[in-house]
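Q: My collaborator sent me two sequences in one message, no labels, and asked for predicted structures for both. Can we handle them in order? The first one she listed is below.
A: Yes, handling them in the order given. First sequence, followed by its structure tokens:
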Amino acid sequence: MLIVINATSAEWSSSKTENLPLCTAQNEQHFPVLVTDGQGGAIVAWSDARHANRDIFAQRISATGNIRWEANGIPICDLPSSQSWPLIASDGEGGAILVWGDTRHGNQDSYAQRIDANGNKLWNPEGIAVCTHPTLQDDLNVIADGKGGVIVVWEDWRNGNQDIYAQRIDSTGKPLWETNGVPVYSGDGDQYDPVLIADGQGGAIFAWWDISTPDWNIFAQRLSADGSPMWNSVGDAENSPVSVCTAAGNQGAPVVVNDANGGAFFVWSDYRNDPNFYTTAQLYAQRISAEGDALWVKDGIPVCELHANQQQPYCVPDGSGGVIVVWWDERNIFADIYAQRINGNGEILWNDENAQFQKGGMPVCTGAGVQRLPQIVPIVETGETIVYWLDYREDFGDSTEDAIYAQRLDVDGKPLWEINGIPVCHAPKEQITPQAAPTDDGAAIVVWSDARGQDYDIYIQRVP
């Protein structure tokens, strides 16, 4: 059945205290995610409590800020059971594939749905099962497989401890790997926070942090298009993952991006130089080839050599075979936002000429208060980037007045907008969990959950 499209007349707001409301339905809406629609706009999905449980809703917005589907969004899954927050990937044809955790059978399983550019469901109306094994699946992550489908990864308890499993779904909604997924790694101990990127061949490269040894370490594996392991550590058992970092101390929270040559860059929080216990993390990075070989020094190179607490790294390819990293940094007591660019040889490219410490990254925002959760949107045509983050410069007393700010960096890491960024939103009350996608003309579309009304709603803004 085709959805009747009633496009709502609207446009992008020029007011950073008004913005554009995407969903103001009753009860709370949280955890918005988005992908570009291929026409300068975006498809957005979120977790929605309008029916007194957690459902998945979605909306499409045009390049000019017009709401394309029904007011307050269309239901993707609104069964009586609860659905966790959604994940989203482009289907490569102007639509999107959504993945979520689902309790329709009691324990949390995982389901998926594909919608086209008009919001029509293309798979089973209630979604197709990604994994319905009777044990818990949690901490889902998803990427487009480059062939019209998706690859999903999650933490899985079927073996009595927490392992990493994955499934590939094609464009028709058919699972391509073993029912309920194949193990990315199912060894001793527990594995956490799986991340992945497409390998360009229909498979994926995965990373996670592992507590099978006394320390937390970072490991990686590549699965082929048919779900078979492709990497193996020299001298270890068959199908064992490759080590990204097994340095002394603890390592966690990895992120991974493509290196434009079939391999990947990995960045993580590293406590090898922590004088106490979990007080000072540095960021380290490693590049691993398409064959699973580490290309930089063993256990990685420091992204920032300054011994200050650095957290929440977010990375994108720089378009020239390197990587750009952004993070929050407590070198000046309160967390600020810094960025660094590293080329394919592991050489640091950005240095702040005004800083005493020359390998400490480029300042993106060192304004008043605390800045958190930095993320990046790459501008492919120019090599520039738009960085956005949660900003608490307006906090006072017992009130939390966080806002969303953004900055544009040129290819040398220098800011192109106002020092310390421009506001995306500084409306009253909280703005949380921002996510962004690039437009076709060098801008970004940012979406977030916003408490300015009676409860949390979804707002959206084009930047600039």
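Q: And the one she listed second?
A: Here it is, processed independently of the first:
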Amino acid sequence: MEIRFKQKSKIIDISIVLVAGIASVSMMIYAVFHFGLKNAWNELVLNMFYVSCLVMTAMYFFKVGITTNQFNYWCSLCVGITVLLRDILFPPPLINYPLHLACMTLSVMLVLMLIFFYSRKDWITYSKRNLWMICIVDMVLATLYNIDIILEPTDEYTAFLLTEIWIRPTITYGLVACFVKDNDEPEPQVQRTELIRTSQSWDGVELPDYLQGRPEVVAIKYEIPAGKKLDWHHHPVMNHGILVQGELTIISKEGKEKVVHEGEAVVEMVNTIHHGENRGLKPVVLYMFYLSQQGMPLSVLHSKISLD
């Protein structure tokens, strides 16, 4: 299975995110069974969004049916929902009022940041700075929660919260880990490759002048089975083509030969009898482009001439 990132540091980053996230979610499952659904139901709901983010991170890393824009949007949306649920609508009880006020302020700031990024027309082009802002604010928020939890009398559920509360900062770090590499890469540019430029056909003969009259441009795709020989023919109009599969041998009546390989362009002879042969083991796929004139045939067959 192909992976998106090749650098060792990026693979380590994503591995840390996945391992930490899986460990945290496992702690949540343990809490549901150990403390009961009545106490841990809210963590179970939150972890449904966390699991979705982890699955999407794995899909993105292994290039399985998710684009950069889709990953960016849906993971960030899940983060925003968890901020709204946990930190604003159902915040954990904090004994220290200043810490409680600071956490609520940071939570509102985090939601506003996400809304601001979504509201922009270019929300799909997050920058490295945008992502680090989200991640850092979320990590500071988790740190404040931990400080308050440590100030409380330590019990088994407190120990659970110390681990579980870091799931979302792990997810936000995963956003950074995935996108820093993508944003640092230069944008792919259009590649231009000139396949052929000539005023002669493949046998070295000068091409005729352009036809006078109403022009007609024709493009035809030819598929020639392996071992097939085409009839003798000539073209009264100029034409050229690109061979996209296989290997085609062109033979003139005078005995000249031209082998066209896969990916090559060829300019055909005009008013010279010739034919083509597929001497290879797989079908030939050839695209030909004719500079013709309305009412004029693209080729004229000479079927009376033997192919032997």
